[in-house]
Amino acid sequence: MKLSQFGLKFAGSAGIVNLMDDLGNALNENPEMIFMGGGNPGRIPKVEAIFKERLEAVLQDPDQLHSLMGIYQSPQGDKGFLTQIAGLLNKQFGWNVSERNVAVSNGSQPAFFILNNMLAGQMPDGGYRSIHLPLAPEYIGYTGIGLSEPFYTATRPDIELLDDHLFKYHVDFSKLKVNRSTAALCVSRPTNPTGNVLTDDEVEHLDEIAMSVDIPLIIDGAYGLPFPGIIFNQAKPHWNENTILVLSLSKLGLPGVRTGIVVANEEFISAFANANTVVSLACGNFGPIIARELFKTGEILSLSKSLISPFYKYRAQLAVDLCKNALRGIPYRIHKPEGAIFLWLWFQGLPISSQELYERLKQRGVLVVPGHNFFPGMNDDWKHQQECIRVSYAQDGETVQKGINIIAEEVKRAFLQ
């Protein structure tokens, strides 16, 4: 069977494909596999109880049950859900949005496929535009998402070395360049994979740059603000008419419901809804039905603040302490964990590639993600890309400790070989 250019591109190998294959297949190969690579959220019993209560209420109401399974929603999403989201954003942050500023997708990954290809690629005038990442490393799922290449460009970050084996990436505004071929600026906040949280000043500066050249600022808030709020420092949610904010229910503990949320100006939301109809016909009903009441009451914010963020903050500090103990004697640094559910480990001068380290760890029963997958739009000549791995700390402490100890053993072996 001959594949089209589209078929060859999207049927091929990619970092996100390999990651999801590993998540799906690893247990068949090794039932004791330690999963420290994927983005599955941790289990928080009190949060699960809230979702269980909402689901039971839906099952007991024939009208809600019919809405859950028996009808298509509008291309933009369930109007009641959109209204609740807009109402919450207005009440809490004064954003002056209505349901016409909000759309639902079947997860944030499909949302990014649609909105990025709406903005970048081949243009009607014959030109070509790309999405610029002001700070790399960035989310593995961006790689390969464009219908044409090169789809992304990126700016190498400024690295601040901190005490106690920590470091932090910053946007290097002295090197950040936008031009007529730049379609949008795109950042994740907190950054997946590093847990970096762009400062409010950095976000404001990026917003000013984007507005000055009439391009949007895209913020991937899958782990961030205003929900699920997995941020451990002070940061403000950001949105205006020039911002496209993409949110998700996944990291609340609902990755299986595949619900993404896009907040943007009315013109863009209308166009996005049309494109989403072509791609998906309609969005799933499960996530909006389960979450609608949480938005209506504002509980979505309180559970993020009181349950979800503290859970991951504790897990993050535990993982950092375990790394510092296990990695003694190794040239390593940990990106300062400011949010998300990962540690980003940098082994300075690592004599093997991040892919080879990944393969060795997989043989030992530990799944991580090799760092070179997280630099879309950047040339391969920066050795730093081969010295890092992403490690999830969402599992229980005993499992994380066991995994970190094995990582330390393999890294030490690599340096001694």
From TrEMBL:
Gene3D superfamilies: Type I PLP-dependent aspartate aminotransferase-like (Major domain). One of its GO terms (biological process) is alpha-amino acid metabolic process. It comes from the Bacteria. InterPro entries: Aminotransferase_I/II_large (IPR004839), Class-I_PLP-dep_aminotransf (IPR050859), PyrdxlP-dep_Trfase (IPR015424), PyrdxlP-dep_Trfase_major (IPR015421). GO terms for molecular function: pyridoxal phosphate binding; valine-pyruvate transaminase activity. NCBIfam families: PRK09440.1-2, PRK09440.1-5. This is Valine--pyruvate transaminase. It comes from SAR92 clade bacterium.
